[in-house]
Amino acid sequence: MSSSFSSSSVSHSQYDDSSITQGLVLPHAGHCFHCGDPVPKPPFHAQILGEAREMCCMGCQLAAESIVEAGLEQYYLDRSEINRTASLPTQLTQLEAYDHDEIKSQFVYAQEGLSVAELSVNNLRCAACTWLIESRLYEIDGVDKCQVNLTNQRMRIIWDENKLPISRILAVINEIGYDAKPYRQDTHEAMLARHNNKMLLRLGIAALGAMQAMMYAVALYFGEYSDMLVFQRDFLRWVSLFVSTPVFFYAGVPFFTSAWSAIRARQVNMDVPVSVALIVTFFASMYATVTGQGETYYDSVSMFIFFLLAGRYIEHNARLKAATMANDLVVIEPILVQKIAEDKASAALILERLKQQAETDVAPLAVGEVTNAVNTNDDIIASPLPNFMQNMDANVQVLTQKVALAWQHSDASATAPPDADKSMVTAQSLQVGDIIMIEAGAEIISDGILLSPTATVSQSLLTGEGDLIIKRQGDYIVGGAQNDSQPFEMLVTALPEDSQMGLIDRLMNRAMSEKPKLAQQADKLARWFVARILVLSVLVFIGWYIVDPSQAIWATVAVLVATCPCALSLATPIALTVATNRLASYGFLTTRGHTLQTLAEITHVAFDKTGTLTYGKPNLLNIELLNDQASAHADSQDSLLAIAAALEVGSRHPIAHALLTAAYQLHLPTTQNLQHYPAGGVEAIVDGVLYRIGHADFAMDAAHDDASSSAQSLNIDLIAHRASSAVVLSCQSLIKSSEDTAPSWQALACFYFNDKVRDSAKATLDTLKQLGIESVMLTGDPSPQALVIADTLGMSAAYNGLSPTDKVNHIQQLQSNGAVVLMVGDGINDAPVLAAADVSTSIAGAADLAQVSSDSIILNGQVEGINAAKRIADKTERIIKQNFRWALGYNGIVLLPAIFGYVPPWLAAIGMSLSSLLVVLNALRLKRA
Questions:
Q1: Strands 488-492 and 448-450
Q2: What residues contact residue 857 under an 8 Å CB cut-off, 6+ apart?
Q3: Which tens digit of pLDDT belongs to each residue from 19-46?
Q4: Hey, CA dihedral for 202, 205, 208, 213, is it positive or negative?
């Protein structure tokens, strides 16, 4: 279909003759040329059949422009009436089907007010193909970004849907000779398989033709020295033409169509010099056959096409194998899944609470709600948080477990559809709020809440870790995991394409679509090289025509073929793709195209402390009663702990989670007027007494009291307790010193916490030190324990008590001294410093992927992934440089022999194919990095 499209410029000139448009059906004055409805003032306009035609709306304008862009203006000449229901051209109607909301929702998603789509693109052959598509689409108003991935034959496009529909984008891609369809892994693999089969068929025909043509060529060569009769020579030439014709006109078609698409777009790609060489050689040989004068090179044509196809077939399969490693991360959605009921109200409530949690601290549930939930199940607050990418605070955890318990104790058949045990639906038809059954051993197709009592899942596909994870009722289940136990029921909270697995695929595709500077330079150099080759070939032809006209054509063909920079265009993208997928196998996900290149250049690594060098999950070490006043308000440490935990219900802070975990067996008192103070703590009334918990200055109300006497007098000693942090619980004194002074605050207890250092942190920093990379700690923790941790880990420098602005200033100071800095943080709180660093990574686990601001993500929470990333980045840089040296060296070495006629066309084809193959095989060594 795409080959039949012609450019709009040709279409316009075609209808300049008024005689051709005499039968054109025109609308009444003031009515739309496309649909016949009245037009507004001022009207919209579209250029059709050489004239500006009035349109009633932007929809008709875009539809008309799509018809013109697709070269289908004949539609307006052929129609017999004008109405909004008139049938459109078949080609355009097929593409416009993708504009329907039901179809579009399956592959288009929103991002920052724009639309994003992942497309499969067939017939991509070299870097020039990707550049041609990108350049053409950027010419269209409304396209914000277009990124084409040569290796996995995919593209990612971001555009304004208010300015143009997706059908027009697909039509433009088809117009320049490429077949684009919405991406789905199964259909994408089927497309690649069909393309592979076509390549194999063409290769087989080329092999048969080349063998036959070579047999006749041997007879012709020997005939030159054995006085072969002219009619025998002519007979062999005609037979050679016969066996070479299907090779040229069928097996060689991919080169010609690719070259013609580039020329129509007024560009050049790798297939232009190849096609010129093939056409010149074949038709020169045909001329010699018909006239009986000159030499024939049918064997060279057939062998040339065979070797080119063989090289591209091997290269294509190598690239396909590299791309398959990335596709293995994405689960092919099952065709059917068992739906047993639905609970859309509960799903909506959970999602609303999660949304609130993502924006601010989640508002606490009503007091009665919390109390009832705790009374129902004493283990609710103690339930472990999800292990991957979705952190629910205790408040939301209570809600999810209430939903799960309600489902377990309800009569499921009351809300289930008829024949629930046999109700199978497609994965694409699932909706948020559906309750589905996941069979044992099956892949979990979407995110959701576990409704069954327990489940055992494997998240190895996501994190690279094979350990089984036990999920309890109400826990978050991540799409992409596998059910390794008995069947369980879950409440769907995200569509399959919006699940965490879908987000990972989008991030990986974005990373592989974005081109680092090195790849952009390689593409630019390759295009420059092709243009110069064409100029050089003309000069070679002229030179040889003066010296020896009989050798002019063949020397020119050899130059065109031997120096084609195919290897140069493959040097970077294939290496980056293999490296990106190898990193993914270590649980290190790159989300930006420049990540690998910059990682190879880093001189410093800056670490946040909490959640990065440490696990970010503090444990309660000790409770210290601060004075005798404590005994007046509590009979024991447990009572103080219960009050402290009650104040922290609903908070997302790690300290809150530690207190709630420590108090899970205690009865929590009811709180009133609970208030959160940013950078301070929490205040609430318990049994008529106003309590505070937070840092010492906040707890002692340093704004009213003397901070030096209130905070320092508490004698909080983190080092002596081997603690990383501490909070103080205080209450407002009931006795005022005078009528004019505010009530004083009395410290009741100090809670000491320790955040354990990651087991692999020391080894990671030691390895970085061996590589000559300095490590720096930039933490907001003001405690001296942070400096103790830095010293224990052997870091080059450490700075504590930093604000986000202070961290950015430290990064910029390092950069001003020539350092290339990698920042490792939590992805959300450190967003400013992550953006300021040259390259950044975050430890997944506490942050949703959609909120991550970093250039890469460590999915499995293992900080040693940084070492693996650095090692692979260094090896990738070496391999890319090796590929560049080989590609440029080969072209430089073969150029002079080709110019002087020492390289026959068939040998040039072998050399070019082997050069490209060597580059691909060298890049595949990264699979073992």
A1: antiparallel
A2: 507, 588, 589, 591, 827, 841, 842, 843, 844, 849
A3: 445 667 888 888 888 888 888 888 888 8
A4: negative
CA distance linking residue 626 with residue 717, whole number of Å: 12
Structure tokens at 319: 């690239």
Is residue 275's pLDDT more than 50? yes
Residue whose pair of structure tokens reads 């069954």 in the numeric block: 452
The per-residue b/e assignment along 408-446, b for 16 or more CB within 10 angstroms, e otherwise, is: eeeeeeeebeeebeebeeebeebebbbbbbbeeeebbbb
* Average pLDDT over the chain, rounded to an integer: 75
The DSSP H or E segment spanning 799 is strand 797-799
CA dihedral 529, 535, 539, 545 (to 10 degrees): 110
Residue 454: which H helix or E strand, with range?
Answer: strand 454-458
What's the Cα-to-Cα distance from 390 to each of 467, 494, 508, rounded to whole Å? 18, 12, 19
Q: List CB contacts of 920: < 8 A, sequence separation 6 or more.
A: 314, 315, 318, 319, 570, 574
CB atoms within 10 A of CB 90: 10
Helix axis angle, 298-327 relative to 573-585, nearest 10°?
Answer: 30
pLDDT in the model for residue 615: 81
Could you tell me the two tokens for 360? 């601010």
DSSP label of 613: I
Whether 839 and 856 have beta carbons less than 8 Å apart is answered as yes
Q: What are phi and psi of 117, to 5 degrees?
A: -135, 145
Tens of pLDDT, residue by residue over 301-317, are 887 788 778 767 766 66
Query: What's the CA gap between 108 and 170, in Å, rounded?
Result: 13
Residue 482 pairs with which residues in a beta bridge?
443, 458
Overall pTM > 0.85 = no
- Band the pLDDT of 361: cuts 50, 70, 90: very low
Q: Show Cβ contacts of residue 363 under 8 Å, excluding neighbours closer than 6 positions.
A: 356, 650
Residue whose token pair is 């699932």: 430
326 pLDDT higher than 60: no
Q: Within a 10 A sphere around the Cβ of 791, how many other Cβ atoms? A: 11
Query: Alpha carbon 242 to chain centroid distance?
Result: 49
Mean of pLDDT values over 54-59:
77
Burial string for 764-788 (b: 16+ CB within 10 Å, else e) reads bbebbeeeebbbbbbbbbebebbbe
